[in-house]
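Q: What would this chain look like folded?
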Amino acid sequence: MAKEQRRRALVTLPRDDQILITREFTAPRALVYRAYTTPELVAQWWHADRGTIDSIEIDLRVGGRWRYAMTANGGFPVVFHGEYLEIVPAERIVSTEVFEGMPEAAATSTVTFSDTAQGTTLAILVQHKNRANRDVHLHSGMEDGLQEAMDHLEEVASAQGSRDG
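A: My prediction, written as C-alpha coordinates:
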Protein backbone atom coordinates (compact mmCIF):
# COMPACT_ATOMS: atom_id res chain seq x y z
CA MET A 1 0.00 0.00 0.00
CA ALA A 2 1.50 3.34 -1.01
CA LYS A 3 2.31 5.60 1.91
CA GLU A 4 -0.10 8.34 0.74
CA GLN A 5 -2.95 5.79 0.61
CA ARG A 6 -2.46 4.54 4.15
CA ARG A 7 -5.08 5.13 6.75
CA ARG A 8 -4.15 7.39 9.63
CA ALA A 9 -4.76 6.92 13.29
CA LEU A 10 -7.01 9.61 14.68
CA VAL A 11 -5.83 11.13 17.96
CA THR A 12 -8.49 12.92 20.01
CA LEU A 13 -8.76 14.23 23.57
CA PRO A 14 -12.11 13.15 25.06
CA ARG A 15 -11.24 14.64 28.47
CA ASP A 16 -8.40 16.67 29.97
CA ASP A 17 -6.71 13.51 31.23
CA GLN A 18 -7.28 11.21 28.23
CA ILE A 19 -5.90 10.43 24.80
CA LEU A 20 -8.01 8.37 22.41
CA ILE A 21 -6.36 6.78 19.40
CA THR A 22 -8.51 5.09 16.75
CA ARG A 23 -7.37 3.37 13.57
CA GLU A 24 -9.15 1.32 10.93
CA PHE A 25 -7.49 -1.84 9.61
CA THR A 26 -8.40 -3.94 6.58
CA ALA A 27 -7.37 -7.11 8.42
CA PRO A 28 -9.89 -9.16 10.42
CA ARG A 29 -10.13 -8.52 14.17
CA ALA A 30 -8.55 -11.86 15.15
CA LEU A 31 -5.46 -11.08 13.09
CA VAL A 32 -5.10 -7.54 14.42
CA TYR A 33 -5.42 -8.92 17.96
CA ARG A 34 -2.82 -11.62 17.25
CA ALA A 35 -0.39 -9.05 15.80
CA TYR A 36 -1.00 -6.83 18.86
CA THR A 37 -0.41 -9.56 21.46
CA THR A 38 2.18 -11.99 20.06
CA PRO A 39 5.76 -11.04 21.03
CA GLU A 40 7.43 -11.94 17.73
CA LEU A 41 4.76 -10.01 15.82
CA VAL A 42 4.85 -6.96 18.13
CA ALA A 43 8.61 -6.87 17.49
CA GLN A 44 7.85 -6.33 13.79
CA TRP A 45 5.75 -3.18 14.26
CA TRP A 46 6.27 -1.52 17.65
CA HIS A 47 9.64 0.10 16.76
CA ALA A 48 7.94 2.31 14.13
CA ASP A 49 11.25 2.60 12.25
CA ARG A 50 12.50 4.66 15.22
CA GLY A 51 14.99 2.14 16.58
CA THR A 52 15.91 -1.49 17.14
CA ILE A 53 13.87 -3.82 19.32
CA ASP A 54 15.85 -5.18 22.28
CA SER A 55 13.07 -7.27 23.81
CA ILE A 56 9.32 -7.80 23.78
CA GLU A 57 7.89 -9.66 26.76
CA ILE A 58 4.18 -10.46 26.98
CA ASP A 59 2.54 -12.58 29.69
CA LEU A 60 -1.00 -12.22 28.35
CA ARG A 61 -3.14 -12.99 31.39
CA VAL A 62 -4.77 -10.91 34.10
CA GLY A 63 -1.97 -10.09 36.53
CA GLY A 64 0.61 -10.86 33.82
CA ARG A 65 3.15 -8.27 32.85
CA TRP A 66 4.39 -6.85 29.57
CA ARG A 67 7.58 -4.97 28.72
CA TYR A 68 8.71 -3.50 25.37
CA ALA A 69 12.30 -2.26 25.05
CA MET A 70 14.17 -0.75 22.15
CA THR A 71 17.23 1.32 21.46
CA ALA A 72 16.14 4.42 19.60
CA ASN A 73 17.96 5.57 16.48
CA GLY A 74 19.63 8.25 18.66
CA GLY A 75 21.18 5.50 20.81
CA PHE A 76 19.01 5.96 23.92
CA PRO A 77 16.71 3.35 25.48
CA VAL A 78 12.91 3.54 25.11
CA VAL A 79 11.21 1.14 27.49
CA PHE A 80 7.57 0.72 28.49
CA HIS A 81 6.05 -1.83 30.83
CA GLY A 82 2.80 -2.61 32.56
CA GLU A 83 0.43 -5.15 34.04
CA TYR A 84 -2.67 -6.65 32.45
CA LEU A 85 -5.80 -5.78 34.43
CA GLU A 86 -8.48 -7.20 32.11
CA ILE A 87 -8.37 -9.37 28.99
CA VAL A 88 -11.25 -10.38 26.74
CA PRO A 89 -9.51 -12.19 23.86
CA ALA A 90 -9.84 -10.43 20.49
CA GLU A 91 -12.09 -7.76 22.09
CA ARG A 92 -10.51 -5.80 24.95
CA ILE A 93 -7.27 -5.40 26.88
CA VAL A 94 -6.89 -3.13 29.90
CA SER A 95 -3.39 -2.62 31.28
CA THR A 96 -1.20 -0.18 33.09
CA GLU A 97 1.38 1.63 30.95
CA VAL A 98 4.60 3.03 32.35
CA PHE A 99 7.29 4.80 30.35
CA GLU A 100 10.40 3.91 32.34
CA GLY A 101 11.89 7.34 31.62
CA MET A 102 8.97 8.97 33.46
CA PRO A 103 7.46 6.40 35.87
CA GLU A 104 5.49 9.04 37.79
CA ALA A 105 3.30 9.50 34.68
CA ALA A 106 1.89 5.95 34.67
CA ALA A 107 -1.39 5.58 32.81
CA THR A 108 -4.06 2.95 32.18
CA SER A 109 -4.76 1.91 28.60
CA THR A 110 -7.94 0.29 27.36
CA VAL A 111 -7.55 -1.27 23.92
CA THR A 112 -10.63 -2.45 22.04
CA PHE A 113 -10.88 -4.41 18.81
CA SER A 114 -14.18 -4.05 16.91
CA ASP A 115 -15.40 -5.58 13.66
CA THR A 116 -16.21 -3.27 10.76
CA ALA A 117 -17.46 -3.99 7.26
CA GLN A 118 -13.89 -3.51 5.97
CA GLY A 119 -11.99 -5.17 8.83
CA THR A 120 -11.26 -3.88 12.31
CA THR A 121 -11.33 -0.71 14.36
CA LEU A 122 -8.62 -0.53 16.99
CA ALA A 123 -9.26 2.01 19.75
CA ILE A 124 -6.74 2.84 22.47
CA LEU A 125 -7.96 4.99 25.34
CA VAL A 126 -5.07 6.19 27.50
CA GLN A 127 -6.24 7.41 30.91
CA HIS A 128 -3.67 9.62 32.63
CA LYS A 129 -3.77 10.75 36.26
CA ASN A 130 -3.95 14.40 35.22
CA ARG A 131 -3.77 16.82 32.32
CA ALA A 132 -0.06 17.57 32.83
CA ASN A 133 0.88 13.92 32.33
CA ARG A 134 -1.46 13.65 29.35
CA ASP A 135 0.13 16.71 27.78
CA VAL A 136 3.67 15.37 28.26
CA HIS A 137 2.57 12.18 26.49
CA LEU A 138 0.74 14.09 23.78
CA HIS A 139 3.67 16.42 23.03
CA SER A 140 6.38 13.75 23.26
CA GLY A 141 6.38 13.24 19.50
CA MET A 142 4.35 10.08 19.96
CA GLU A 143 1.96 10.78 17.11
CA ASP A 144 4.53 10.47 14.31
CA GLY A 145 5.85 7.22 15.73
CA LEU A 146 2.30 6.06 16.35
CA GLN A 147 1.34 6.56 12.71
CA GLU A 148 4.35 4.53 11.54
CA ALA A 149 3.71 1.79 14.12
CA MET A 150 0.06 1.50 13.06
CA ASP A 151 1.10 1.23 9.40
CA HIS A 152 3.43 -1.63 10.35
CA LEU A 153 0.72 -3.23 12.50
CA GLU A 154 -1.55 -3.23 9.44
CA GLU A 155 1.19 -4.94 7.39
CA VAL A 156 1.90 -7.55 10.08
CA ALA A 157 -1.79 -8.36 10.64
CA SER A 158 -2.47 -8.61 6.89
CA ALA A 159 0.57 -10.84 6.39
CA GLN A 160 -0.79 -13.23 9.02
CA GLY A 161 -3.96 -13.54 6.95
CA SER A 162 -1.88 -14.33 3.86
CA ARG A 163 -0.06 -17.08 5.74
CA ASP A 164 -3.27 -18.52 7.18
CA GLY A 165 -5.15 -18.46 3.88
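Helices lie at 29-37, 39-45, 131-138, 142-164.
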